[in-house]
Structures are given as C-alpha cells and as structure tokens.
Specification:
mainly alpha; 2 domains; globular; 16 helices; Leucine-rich Repeat Variant
Amino acid sequence: MDLKTLLDTPPWDWPRDAGKTFLKILIDRRAKASDRLAAAELAGDFTVINDDLADALLAVAGDAGEPQKLRARAAISFGAILEHADLGGFDELDEMPITEGMFRKIQDSLRKIYLDNDSPKEVRRRVLEASVRAPEAWHPDAIGQAYSSRDREWMLTAVFAMRWVRGFDHQILEALDSADPDIHYEAVLAAGNWELDAAWDRVVELLDDPDTPKPLLLAAIEAAGSIRPLEAGIILVDLADSDDEDVAEAADEALMMAEGALANEDDDEDEEENEEGEWIN
C-alpha cells in the first residue's frame, strides 16, 4: 500500500484494511520514517480511527524516544475526532468510532504531554492545537500564556486555539492588526467564529481591498457572513460573481449561512412576541 498515494486519495476510496495497515506501520519503529509520518496523519481520519489506532497515536505522541516531527503529527491527528466527540457526544454509539473511555484517555494524555516542559515545543504546540477542539478547564490559561509569551510560533498556536475557546475577544482584535500573515489569518477566522462585532470594519477592509491575499479573503468572506449577516449579504453579492471559482463558492456559502442566521433571528423574534402577547393576555 503506497501511503503517499493515500494522502491524495479520498478516504472513502481507501482499501478496507487501511486502518490495520496504518496501525502496523505506526507501531513498527523499523518502518521508514516517511511511512510512519504518513501513517500518523492518515490514522486520524474519521473513517479509520478507532481505540487501537488512538492508542498507537498516543503512544507515539508521548514517547520521548520517537522523532519530534512524528510525535507532533500524531498529536495533531486527534483534532478531528476530539471535535466530533465533543459536539456529538456518546449517546449514539454507532456513530462514534472511539469509546468514551478512549476520548477521556486522549484528553488526559494530551494534557499530560502539554504540561511536561521536557516535551519539545513543536509537540506541545500541536497538543494544544488538537486538544482545544474539545475545550477543557486548563485551556484558557494555556492559551493566555502562549499568547503573552510574544513568541511568534506560540502566538500563532494561541490565536488558532482562540477559535475554539471563549474569552479572548481583546486578543483576537489585537491579532487582527498583526503584521504576521498567519496570525492575521487565524484572527479573522476566530473573529468570525465568535461573531465578534468589533472586528467588522477590519473584515470589510479585507473584502474591499483587491490586494488581499486569497486565503485571507476566503477567511474574511466566511467571517463576514457570521458577524453581520444582513450587511454581509450586500457586500458578498458582488464576490459571488467573481471569476475565481473558490471566491465565488465561498461567497455563495457565506450568503446561505447569512440567510439562515437571519431566518433564525426572525423566528426568535416571533417567539418572543408570542410569549409577550400571552403574558399580557
């Protein structure tokens, strides 16, 4: 099985025994370094991950004898399944590829790795980036410390994490003025996720500026539809006619989200009016 080919292949087209192959390579220290790295990345996919693969990824991430890059890759691979488990819970066990016990073990193990100052910086960063997808009580302090360190890499991790953990509006607004393009990009996504109204003017500036880099423009389009749905609709109509397919598609999606948000607001207002009428009567 050519793992490099699988990296570019949709998961639903993978062989049935793909997960077993990833597990075999992950636990084999004699396997090629590039294959183990690819296996660590592929093993986190929702279509294959299970308790056995999660255990193998944890073993790699927590082993000081493993290559730093492999440990970091194993850690970040938990992001998707942690977020899915956090959002969906374990009521429908058939829809969850890992057990609740494993979910808890992943969270506890990642926290332990992060708090171990002997863990390499790259590993600790990836642990934080993965674990915030299922926020816990220790995350706000970790994010705050990472951001206040003024270390560029730690700040980037912190702003990324702010997309999932509440309470960092001030830092997100500050990061929107960052000259670092990666930090700026993550700040735009975080502002959109928390519908941060104070970020609106800066998001609009990005939409209006023809020199805004495409990745940043796509992030601004998404954020605009979340922050001010009504005003975003007026701005995004023109972008939906863009000759760039990615930009047009992103604008269309943001418009649909904005319309949905407005519809929900109308429903909420109707319910409030009905409740007030009932109270008066």
